[in-house]
Amino acid sequence: MLASVLAGLSILIVGDSHLSEPGYLIDTLQDQLVAAGAQVHTYGVCGSTPGDWVKSVPGTCGGATRNGKAALVVDHNAKTQPIDQLIAANKANLVIVVEGDTIGGYGKDDFPKTWAWQQVTALTQDLAASKTACVWVGPVWGTEGGKYQKTFTRVKQLSSFLATNVAPCAYIDSLTFSKPGEWATVDGQHLTTTGYKYWGGDIMKALVKLPVVQQHK
């Protein structure tokens, strides 16, 4: 099932720090996609927001890239690249966006809805213009507190916001994969390697059920 849906697809994955370290989604999700026959190129820029992917913006904490089965390449000076250029360079027919935590306004009294909307629509407009199928992966629960001051209430608000604002991309609600706090983190936001294995596997299961992915076959 997995292989038949994904075989031959050229997949571009872009996003924030969840794609920027060994053992994160840049490994766990990518390995499964490649095993199912997809060509995959991932670009992770730590601290990036969705709107950063319509231009070139330096990350705040490095990043990584990974092509196919090769090992990831860490880049301490990672920058985002315009999504339309990345789609063209990789001949991508499916884009997966992993962005959420960086626009949650964790630690602030209110969710920065207007700014978050501007961030999201900047990227979705460019994706729509490229006419490339896209899937947006929302944030996981994480654990409360830590240096990012993530809370379950805010991440739920953030995920609900993304679910209704990422069109034309399909939305994968990562909150449905676990109970609040079930997956351990190292800092409230970034999971342990076990958590990233679970998350990658659950994204994979959700992905192959999406009409936007199935219609390629």
Automatic annotation (TrEMBL):
Alphabetized GO MF terms: hydrolase activity, acting on ester bonds
InterPro entries: SGNH_hydro_sf
SUPFAM superfamilies: SGNH hydrolase (SSF52266)
Name of protein: Lysophospholipase L1-like esterase
